[in-house]
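Structural prep section.
Before we set up the soaks we want a predicted structure of the protein with NAP in place, mainly to decide which crystallisation condition to try first. Input record follows.
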Amino acid sequence: MSIKCAILGATGMVGQRFVELLSGAKDFPTRDFEISALYASERSAGKKYRDACHWVLDSEMPESIADMEVVNYLPEADIYFSALPSGTAKDIERRLADKGCIVCSNASDNRMAEDVPLVIPEINSQHLELVKDRQGYIVANPNCSTIILCLALKPLSGFGIEALNVTTMQALSGAGYPGVSSIDIENNILPYIKNEEDKIESEPLKIFGRLENGRIKRADFRISASCTRVNVIEGHTLSIQVKLRDNPDIEEIKEAFRSFKGLSLPSAPEKPVILREEEDRPQPRKDLGNGFSISVGRIRKDSVLGYKMFAVGSNTVRGAAGASILNAELLSASGYL
Ligand SMILES: NC(=O)c1ccc[n+]([C@@H]2O[C@H](COP(=O)([O-])OP(=O)(O)OC[C@H]3O[C@@H](n4cnc5c(N)ncnc54)[C@H](OP(=O)(O)O)[C@@H]3O)[C@@H](O)[C@H]2O)c1
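Run finished without errors. Recording the tokens verbatim:
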């Protein structure tokens, strides 16, 4: 039986990824999800999706969705995928959860709430315990850069992460549509993304936290983040320096990446983290794959914190819509849906 899903913020950058992935417009595994409603602002309400949405993805807008009407009331659905802007998401998601509905959210508004698991399935699926036995709830996925960072860190967690420094080079699609003005970004780098550094410095501590007596006890490593916007359409690049308690050699670190296995979920990649050994990889133009895996490379010693590397991942797939879909697949596989 198919699971009926409503996409909230369906006309935006992340909403379009949801439509693309869930409608099977690209070559992704068949899923049990069926798009039953498209929700956006009053500006779009009453219009056909093809008229309300300025489609910016490389794939074609799916014909099966193009004639659906966009609504501005909350429709009935089995699950709600939220790609609402922060500020707007908070109350709408809470209202749905209070009514007994299940929300998988991309928005930052409810991510750090005590009763909301902030989940990357390969890292902390056990945090779903927070919503066990509840009828309505929100499961959030982290900020796009946080997801790429945490996936890059997960294989290293056995060596004891003590501190890290991360500089992000974030793609334009991460700012939504129409996003950053071309006059501002052309031939330029913007050294500021509002609220982003706070998210990257706090969310990983919840994700790597331990579930104790029904609460998440935060991890206690230190994180310093600096965020930039760069003139790349899709794919965030992170430069990461990390201090590891056990001082492994570089080959041990590479082996940890090579042996890191994926989960058995329809959209989960066999290898969530791909190790690139070339001297000039990973790159956002070459290493996004189908968007669900991230890539790491240039793993080397660092004279300040011990180790450094680059990580690259798709901000709208693994960093947003795909992350929510993976969480929904995890909920379904774990009997929560
Ligand atoms: N872009 C990324 O890579 C990325 C990654 C991770 C997380 N996120 C998060 O995902 C969310 C969506 O981001 P985005 O980049 O897709 O933004 P976006 O392109 O600006 O899209 C916003 C969507 O929300 C709708 N919307 C705006 N105000 C609304 C309102 N008052 N009521 C109902 N719907 C409203 C818009 O509908 P209209 O078309 O009708 O205005 C549009 O569908 C944000 O919370 C963002 O932080 C984004």
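Observations: The chain has a mean pLDDT of 97.
Flagged for discussion at group meeting.
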